[in-house]
Design a protein that fits this description.
This protein is mainly α. The chain has 6 helices and no strands.
Length: 132
Amino acid sequence: MNIKQVSEITNVPASTIRYYEKEHIIPYVERSNSGIRDFDEHLIRRINFAKTMRAAGMEIDELKKYIYLFDQVQNSENEQLALLKQQREIMEEKRDDIQAAIDHLDYKISHFDNHMLATERELRALEKKHLK
């Protein structure tokens, strides 16, 4: 499969796939005689993993570290697991922040009429004071 096809399948831009290869997030991609990259299912799975981790907020350096441990270091399962757990904690913090923002918006929406009426009265009173 060529890079255009892989880009369409994974919904990852070709430029990002090339970057992943350059940064060793995916292994070197074999080329055909004409120099066209030839991707296999393993590489597609790796691209999807990288895409998921990046969407989760994992920094490139952390992703590279995880990939290095996975590919190159024997008996590194504990380190791999620690990186994944660390990323999960980061994601949970972000989720909590997002949930707090959603809760605040829900409150504002449900109290919109009361809040707006009170604010309008306050502004009118201030306007009257200012005009005197």
